[in-house]
Design a protein that fits this description.
Blueprint: E1 18-23, H1 30-33, E2 35-40, E3 51-60, H2 63-69, H3 73-79, E4 89-97, E5 109-113, H4 116-122, E6 130-134, E7 138-140, H5 147-150, H6 153-167, E8 175-179, H7 184-195, E9 199-204, H8 209-215, E10 219-222, H9 228-235, E11 238-243, H10 249-253, E12 259-267, H11 274-285, E13 297-299, H12 306-318, E14 325-330, H13 334-342, E15 349-353
Parallel strand pairs: 8-9, 8-11, 9-10, 11-12, 12-13, 14-15
Antiparallel strand pairs: 1-2, 3-4, 3-6, 3-15, 4-5, 5-7
Helix pairs in contact: 6-7, 6-12
Protein name: Peptidase
GO molecular function: oxidoreductase activity
Region (Disordered): 1-20
C-alpha cells in the first residue's frame, strides 16, 4: 500500500501595503485639481544608498504648496511634469534605510523636508502615507518634541531661522519689526529673535495681539485700528524689518521714517501672481525721487541644507520654542486644510494628520 503523502499548503504571500496620497495632474486651485490616489509602497530593497523610507505621521502646509499648485497653466507646462504629490514638511517613523545611511535607524522618529527642487524633480511630496526621502534632509527627533509639532518645523521654521541668523545677522539688543507675526513663519520669527536677544515689534490684527505678546513681542501694532507707519515712527529707530506678508508697499516706501539708514528690509512672501511681480518691480527699480525707498528690499529664499536641519533642531530645543498649531485636519480633509491655509486667517501652522496611529 502506497504511503499517503500529505499536501502542504504554501504560505500566503504577504499583502502589498498600500500607499495613499493626494495628487494633482494639472495646475489650478486645490479644490479644482487635488484628488486622492493609491499605489504600492516602494520596496525597501529598491532604495538608493542614501534614501530613507518614512511612514508619514503628519505634514504641514506652506503658502508655496498652493502657490505652485495654482501657477498659471502656461508656466506649469514648462516648469512641471505631472502628477505631483504636494507638501514639503513631514514627520514620521523610519521604515527602511539605504545601505549608506548611518545616522538613522528603523523605528526612529524623524522630521524633514522635501525642498521645492526635489519636489519638482521627483513629484513626490509629503501629502502621502509613505515617503521616500533623502537622508541628508531627514533628522532624528528629540524626545521632547512631538510628531505633530515637528511637522511644522520645516519650511516655515527654517526660513525664519536662516533669514534672521544668516541673512540679517540679528544679534542681542537689536530692534526688529516682524510684519505678519501670527503666521507660520512669523510665529517662529518672534521666538527666534527673542532667543537671540532682540527686541521685537509685531504687526498683526486684533485677534492675534495676545499671541504675539505670548511669543515674546515687546510691542504689538494692530493694523486694523492703528496707523502702522505712525506707530513705528513713534517707536523708532529699528535695525531691521522682517516682512512675512509682502504686500504693504507704502510701509516699505516710507521705511526711512523708522528704519536706520543701514537697516535691512527682508521679505519672504514671494508669489507667482502678476500683482506680486509688479510689486517686486516697484520695490526693485523705482528710484527714491519717484517714490521708491532708500532701503533695499531683499527677497529671501530658503536654502535648505543638511546642517540647517541640525542647527535649527538644536536651537528649537535649547530655547524651548514651540510650533504654534492653528488646526489639525485629517488626511481625508486635506482640501479643508488648504482652504484654511489660503484664508490668510490661520495662526501658526495648518497641520494634516496622515497616520491614524500617530
Amino acid at each position: 500500500m502506497a504511503q499517503e503523502t500529505q499536501a502542504t499548503e504554501s504560505p500566503a504571500p504577504a499583502p502589498t501595503e498600500v500607499r495613499k496620497f493626494w495628487k494633482y495632474e494639472r495646475t489650478g486651485s486645490p479644490e479644482a485639481v487635488l484628488e486622492k490616489g493609491e499605489g504600492p509602497v516602494q520596496d525597501a530593497d529598491s532604495l538608493s544608498p542614501t534614501q530613507v523610507l518614512v511612514k508619514v505621521a503628519y505634514t504641514s502646509l506652506n503658502p508655496l504648496d498652493y502657490k505652485v499648485m495654482r501657477i498659471h497653466r502656461i508656466f506649469g507646462k514648462v516648469a512641471m511634469s505631472f502628477p505631483v504629490i504636494p507638501c514639503e514638511d513631514f514627520s514620521g517613523t523610519v521604515l527602511a534605510v539605504g545601505k549608506d545611511v548611518k545616522d538613522l535607524t528603523v523605528g526612529q522618529r524623524v522630521w524633514g523636508v522635501k525642498d521645492v527642487r526635489q519636489l519638482l524633480s521627483t513629484h513626490e511630496g509629503a501629502l502621502s502615507t509613505h515617503l521616500v526621502c533623502d537622508s541628508s534632509l531627514t533628522i532624528g527627533l528629540p524626545d521632547t518634541v512631538s510628531l505633530k509639532e515637528a511637522a511644522g518645523l520645516g519650511i516655515a521654521g527654517m526660513t525664519a531661522f536662516q533669514a534672521l541668523t544668516e541673512q540679517m545677522h540679528m544679534r542681542r539688543n537689536q530692534r526688529l519689526v516682524v510684519i505678519g507675526g501670527s503666521g507660520g513663519v512669523g510665529t517662529f520669527a518672534i521666538q527666534i529673535a527673542r532667543a537671540l536677544g532682540c527686541e521685537v515689534t509685531t504687526v498683526s490684527s486684533t485677534r492675534n495681539l495676545t499671541l504675539c505678546h505670548e511669543l515674546g513681542a515687546t510691542y504689538t501694532i494692530d493694523y486694523t485700528t492703528e496707523d502702522v507707519l505712525d506707530r513705528l515712527n513713534d517707536l523708532a529707530p529699528y535695525d531691521a524689518v522682517f516682512d512675512a506678508v509682502g504686500e504693504n508697499y507704502e510701509l516699505y516706501k516710507n521705511s526711512y521714517k523708522f528704519l536706520k539708514s543701514d537697516g535691512s528690509y527682508v521679505g519672504i512672501a514671494a508669489d507667482f501672481k502678476l500683482s506680486y511681480l509688479s510689486l517686486k518691480l516697484l520695490r526693485d527699480f523705482r528710484p527714491r525721487f519717484l517714490g521708491g525707498s532708500v532701503h533695499k528690499y531683499t527677497d529671501f529664499t530658503l536654502n535648505v541644507q543638511p546642517k540647517l536641519l541640525k542647527e535649527f533642531t538644536d536651537f528649537f530645543t535649547e530655547h524651548h520654542m514651540k510650533t504654534v498649531v492653528d488646526s489639525v485636519h485629517t488626511f481625508d480633509d486635506a482640501l479643508g486644510a488648504f482652504q484654511q491655509s489660503m484664508s490668510s486667517r490661520s495662526r501658526g501652522k495648518v497641520i494634516i494628520k496622515i497616520s491614524d496611529d500617530a
